[in-house]
Structures are given as structure tokens and as C-alpha cells.
Amino acid sequence: MTTVSFEPTEHPHRRRNALTGEWVLVSPHRTKRPWQGQVEKSMAELRPAYDPTCYLCPGNERAGGKRNPQYTNTLVFDNDFSALLPDGPSGAVDDRELFRTEAETGTCRVLCFSPRHDLTIPEMESGDIRRVVDVWAQQVEELGAQPNIHYVQIFENKGAVMGCSNPHPHGQIWANHTVPVEPAKEDAAQHAYLGRHGQPLLIEYLAHELEASERIVVQNRHWVALVPYWAVWPFETLLLPRRHVLALPELTNDERNALADILKHLTTRYDNLFETSFPYSMGWHGQPTDGRRHEHWQLHAHFYPPLLRSATVKKFMVGYEMLAMPQRDITAEQAADRLRQMSEKHYRT
Ligand code: ZN
Questions:
Q1: Is 170 considered catalytic here?
Q2: Whole-angstrom Cα distance, residue 289 to residue 284?
Q3: In the chain, how many domains are there?
């Protein structure tokens, strides 16, 4: 009888997400075969630079009758159908254990990345992406300075498959009184890690990743994009600054330019993977904005793309994922390798 030793590139295993404490099941034996995913090219979507029916294009009327200015780079406005409202009574409405209700206040804003209806981040110039970076930082600063705002969540839903109803390049900023569920998990994990090791969790994590280098996708002098060890989505990535940075407003001029560059390079690789405008939800996690410094925090962005094998085949989080735990076949290392091999020249140029 032969004894087989455990080999994580071959045998089913689970990996722990150090940021949340949650686990993912990895089944690499199901992808031992060479990559057979048929890459179906989606029809090139040609959009006009200006769409008279788009409520985000310059000069157009939005729902509720407000009109967009003739903006030339970015535009921020309060969401016309905001999920949060700035004014209202606070406190517990119902504090019973089984029926807990608490009032929540906040602000929801929309950020147009560009006046051009037909562009996305990978197709924008780095200088124009830099303007988006500045608005992100400025919004965290401005909203976070409000006494009732303790967390500012910046995010982008890209593509109809992610529920994005308008292809005009835009993201959102939701700011509210309590720290939401996902950053709260990461806050607890990072706080505990700093207490145990004396170093921020993601600073040590990045050092290990750079040493191993098998999950790195793209890097420059200030930033590293990698497929995290615990990735759930097939081509999930984590974008990290090299320096210890608690929040977007702390980024230097150089770091902001380098961020614009790496955002362009990462999303170009995504688009080139299946030669499609790659859908994803992405967003920033930084320290809470309660006025204190949270030294255990390290700023980072998550990219959660749903596509698995082609422009039309997405991963479903169903059955076992809904009822037990997330599961993936392609390993984080294989995903990083595929993204790394992609050109930084966009397939449409
Ligand atoms: Zn995070």
C-alpha cells in the first residue's frame, strides 16, 4: 500500500480567509485536465460616446427632474433613490434579542468616472483614472468628517451580470453610521492580528505573497494586485499598497498616480482574459471614519468578478455555497497564472 502525502495542488482542501475567518473549499483535482474552457467571443458592444437616453451622460435629465451639468471629467451627486437617508432619529426601535431593530442614517452618492458613455476603467487614460482616485479619496475625507458617519464604502458594480443597470462608467459611495458587516469582520481580524504579532495582518500577508510570488498578477512601485490565497470567486483579486496606509485620503501624489496605472493594467488583463468587458463588483476597504486612528487597518480593494470560463459562463454561488461553504475548482495560483499571462494591451485597441 502506498502512502500519498497531501499536495494542495492535487487534493481537495479548505483554505481560511485571514481577513474574515471564513473558509473556502478548493477542489484542484477537478481541473487537472488542461484548460478546456471554450472562449466564446461576445459580440463587441459598441456604445456611443454620448447617449441622449442615459441619465448619467452630461446635460441629461435624471429621474426626479434634476439635470446633470456639462461635466468634463467626473461628477458626484446624491443618489436620487438613496438606500440611506441623512436625517432621522437614531437609537434602538426594538432591542429584543429575536427582533432587533436599530435606526440607520447615511448618504448614498453616485460617481460618474467619465463624461464618455462608451468607456470603462481599462479604456480610460491613466490621467483620467487618477481623477477618479482623487474623488474617491475626497469623498472618504468629506463624508467621513461628518460626526454621524463611521464608515464610507466605495464600490463599483460593472456589467449587467452584476446587476448594473447602466453601462455609463460609474461607481457608488454609501456612507453610514455603523460599520457594515464585511469591514466589521476585517476590522476584528486585523485588530486581533496586530495584538498577537505586532504587525498589521495585510502588511505581513503581502510580504509573504511577494516572497512566494505565485499569486501575484501585476505590481508597480507602490501597489500589488494578487489573487488572494483564500479567493472564492474564480478570478478574484486583492489590490494592496506596499506602504502601511489606513485609508484612501492618506495616499501620496505618487501613490495615486501608481494606483491609476495599476487599475488600468489589472482591468485590462481582466478584459483580455475572455475578450469581453469583464464584469465585477469592486470596492475599497479602509479604516472606519469615527475620528480615531486604527493602526491595525491596511487599505485595500477587492475585485469580485463572476466569470468562470468565458464571456458567458459565470460561477454560480448556489447549493453547497448557499448552504455550506464556498467552493472553487481552479486554484488561486492557477487563476493568478492565467491573469499574469494576459497582455497589458487592451484587446480592443
Ligand atoms: Zn476587505
A1: yes
A2: 13
A3: 1
